[in-house]
Amino acid sequence: MFESLQQHFAQLGPEFGRPLKPTALGSARLVHINHALAEDIDAQALVAEPQQLLGWASGQQLLGPSPIAMKYSGHQFGVFNPELGDGRGLLLGEWRDGDGQLWDLHLKGAGRTPYSRFGDGRAVLRSSIREYLIGESLNALGIASSRALCLVASDDTVMREQVETCATIVRTARSHIRFGSFEEFFYQRRYPELRQLADYCIERYCPKPEGDPYAALLQLAVVNTADTIGRWQAYGFNHGVMNTDNMSIIGDSFDFGPYAFLDDYQADFVCNHSDTQGRYSFEQQPAIGLWNLNALAHALSPLLNREQLQQALIAYQPKLIETYQGCLNRRLGLMGLEPEDAELGQAWLDLLAAAKADFHHSFRQLSHYQRSGQWPKALAAIAQQSGFQAWREAYQGRTQGQDRDLCAEQMDSANPIYLPRTHLLQQVIEAAQQGDYQPLAQLYACTRQPFKARPEWSAWAQPPATQDKGICLSCSS
Ligand code: AMP
Ligand code: MG
């Protein structure tokens, strides 16, 4: 037991979750330790002894006295489901870092719980690797996200589309409370518990609110969600399953399934094979974020009047647009924020789409144009599109007078070379399934430092072959 491990959530009471021990994984082995994260949250002691870490991260031993399976509900694909909860994960406790910040430690893949329904309580290696890497990637891009402290593999198997081996991750996040955690109590008209949960969040996430504390909590969710989704849009990230139980109350990117970074710029891209209506397509994400916040506001309506709810929600759109345009401008090398930037940015995206140019490489290549004034050969296909000349003139006009080298440098620090893209993840997963974890370690390393080109990492910078573009993934995990 570590002194810095707290058990605050566990004290809320049985309505909020069930105390439960994990079910140990068989023949477990540590595949990767996220030392960078351990350092960030002053948790080096947690990972210092690999045998000890493997013990609690595989569920063989307890880290603290009160692991909890948290109860929540949620809207899945627009339909309310009251029967959700941690069906395969346990909150182990909260870790206090050197600044006093608390970090939830959650063991995902910890076995069956009272909320498992028909599930086996496990997570497979494939999806665990994907979740492990995306947290690091988003974090490195400056996008708030849960992360994971380590990855454990096992020989135990479960059935998905095929037989797959199990794994666990130790997920860290400032919060594991979801929009659906509030819906849980609202739809049962259990308003004292609703208030208790809100008080818990206020104490932890907005301890010094200006004005009404419940309004401040909703405002926090609105503004942070808008900020996160604005960044997803600017970086071409498709979450894939934005159900309200996968939305963090503090707006962090959370609970990943069949996510993907765009390959080409395809606004209506859907990464989740099961999402036949395209509800969670890339371009729908901003609207769905607001839909989900409406569901949250509805759940908080016993604590707030109509005007307070509306006041909080109207902050969403301006915040999202501001964040999105700010990020896009940094990527395009546009200093400041001008009224014409929205059109200029959109015209660039339209050119990418028409040219079927790789989304991430095109941004990265654009800094060469700033440096040399010559249109890069790698972007030749874009130059052939109708509308290109007009766009180039407008872009030149907008960037005139800026220091070109400085601008190019800033663009390079905003445009990633290395991302856990679907085709690269497939390679890493296939190797790991054969027991080779080297590719995972490599993709982890470059994902953490996405902006600086390194020749030895060139294989991880390659876009997919045409036939591997825009793969739609299964949501099984
Ligand atoms: P997710 O799609 O991972 O967001 O999960 C949706 C709901 O299904 C949550 O209540 C999960 O705890 C539960 N769930 C997902 N996979 C499993 C599984 N293999 N075993 C038990 N419960 C699961
Ligand atoms: Mg979930």
What does the overall shape look like? globular
State the total count of DSSP E strands. Answer: 13
What number of domains? 4
Proportion of β residues?
Answer: 5-15%
Bound molecules: adenosine monophosphate, magnesium ion
Q: Note the main sheet.
A: 7 strands, antiparallel
Mean pLDDT: 97
- Radius of gyration from the alpha-carbon trace, in angstroms: 23 Å
Count of individual helical segments? 17
Encode the helix/strand succession as letters.
Answer: EEEHHHEEEEEEHEEHHHEEHHHHHHHHHH
**How does the helix and strand content classify structurally?**
alpha+beta
Contiguous low-pLDDT stretches (5 residues minimum) are none
Q: First CA to last CA: what distance?
A: 31 Å
Q: Please estimate the helix content.
A: 40-55%
